[in-house]
């Protein structure tokens, strides 16, 4: 099977390619990425030279480039990670999120239909559901109530994917994951940001009261789930993927400081983010029941592995911080 992976030089995409390329030598994996700030080919150096892996620098908003790629590679499946993904950046500059996440997805769907691609998997987020109260879980049937420009752009893309299935009979699937963490995550996100700042004994900024809750999912567990959805998921379905690891942001920061042996007084509370959702938590019963998926990595184990990775790979993230981090991050 020829599988196009969009955004494969980003955090989850590179981990997915690393998971797949060695396990499926009979499949071909075509990685396309625009290499914007969060795309980094250094994250994929171990795949260079693999016979079933290739890379093209392509922007999913550029139709002619996509047409040329589809004509050459004849994809049979698309796994669509490519997206602008940071909430703070979406608040500061929302237009780019609409262009990539909505219009770029529409370009891919249109060409998927034109070229007769057999399966399209949209990688989405729990943020499309909005904010939960202190109880309950998001299910696949929860209404879409996005509260940030990023979340709204992903919800819009999800609706286009669902419309493609209903209108054109396309074989599409949507996965919605909780917060991912692990190796190769861009250092603007909460866990790598707190690790890198703690390593340098810098203040750790925590929004508001720090009691916003997220459900954390180790990235390799997420990649296993996507693999199952790609190969065994029912057409037209949505699958929630969650780690069942609910922690407040403050707890996460405290755990990182404890692992690193750093003082708690590095924590600095700052004004809250606009539209900051209070709680996310996912019901992943459907993917467990239908496809047999369960998370395999406990949170404390995964967090220690992640901290160790960032300690051992400072060369990877220090260059990114120096080049790509705006003042508000």
From TrEMBL:
<dbReference type="Pfam" id="PF16363">
    <property type="entry name" value="GDP_Man_Dehyd"/>
</dbReference>
<dbReference type="GO" id="GO:0009225">
    <property type="term" value="P:nucleotide-sugar metabolic process"/>
</dbReference>
<protein>
    <recommendedName>
        <fullName>dTDP-glucose 4,6-dehydratase</fullName>
        <ecNumber>4.2.1.46</ecNumber>
    </recommendedName>
</protein>
<dbReference type="InterPro" id="IPR016040">
    <property type="entry name" value="NAD(P)-bd_dom"/>
</dbReference>
<dbReference type="InterPro" id="IPR005888">
    <property type="entry name" value="dTDP_Gluc_deHydtase"/>
</dbReference>
<dbReference type="GO" id="GO:0008460">
    <property type="term" value="F:dTDP-glucose 4,6-dehydratase activity"/>
</dbReference>
<dbReference type="InterPro" id="IPR036291">
    <property type="entry name" value="NAD(P)-bd_dom_sf"/>
</dbReference>
<comment type="similarity">
    <text>Belongs to the NAD(P)-dependent epimerase/dehydratase family. dTDP-glucose dehydratase subfamily.</text>
</comment>
<dbReference type="InterPro" id="IPR020904">
    <property type="entry name" value="Sc_DH/Rdtase_CS"/>
</dbReference>
<feature type="domain" description="NAD(P)-binding">
    <location>
        <begin position="5"/>
        <end position="306"/>
    </location>
</feature>
<keyword id="KW-0520">NAD</keyword>
<keyword id="KW-0456">Lyase</keyword>
